[in-house]
Design a protein that fits this description.
With 157 residues, this protein is mainly β. It is built from 3 helices and 8 strands; from the N terminus they run E-E-E-E-E-E-H-E-E-H-H. The strands form 2 sheets. It has a 5-stranded mixed beta barrel with strand order 1-3-6-8-7. A two-stranded antiparallel ribbon has the order 4-5. The longest helix is centred in the middle third of the chain and has 10 residues.
């Protein structure tokens, strides 16, 4: 949609994602991502943390169940989504505005960790439609020999 603010945030989850269901049974997971900028102070010869950004985020439907079952407190994640502004009244009747991230994509950061990905089955029991082969298909896939003719094992750069 034109005019939406799309951002990518790298940070740590401050708590386990909270999975809830709407009155209609629609799953939603809510969580907070803390992103802290770091800069190197040459005079002190050390890294200094800046002010942390705490960004509330949400995911819906089957995606919410995947997030709640896969991500936990403290994990470093990369999230991309759309910023949403929401106005409400607090308990004292004051008007408030909140900015939240409606997540389109999220996953663990592999900068300081490793991950094992498992493809989830759809609710109807079918495999999701995807162009990539399943993990076990990668191990057995063999490229056509002619494709590799004339190429050595040397790094091309």
């Amino acid at each position: 949609m034109a005019g939406e603010t799309i951002i990518t945030v790298v940070g740590n989850l401050t708590a386990d994602p909270e999975l809830r269901y709407t009155q209609n049974g629609l799953p939603v997971a809510n969580f907070t991502i803390a992103s802290t900028p770091r800069t190197f102070d040459r005079q002190a010869n050390e890294w200094k943390d800046g002010d942390a950004l705490f960004l509330r985020a949400s995911v819906w439907r089957e995606f919410a169940e995947h997030v709640a079952g896969s991500l936990t407190k403290g994990m470093r994640v990369i999230a991309q989504g759309r910023l949403r502004q929401r106005s409400y009244q607090d308990r004292e009747g004051n008007n408030r505005t909140a900015i939240e991230l409606e997540v389109d994509e999220i996953g663990p950061s592999l900068r300081y960790a490793t991950a094992q990905v498992t493809r989830a089955a759809r609710a109807d029991g079918q495999r999701p439609a995807a162009s990539a082969p399943a993990a076990d298909d990668w191990a057995t896939a063999q490229p056509p020999a002619a494709q590799w003719d004339g190429f050595g094992d040397d790094t091309p750069f």
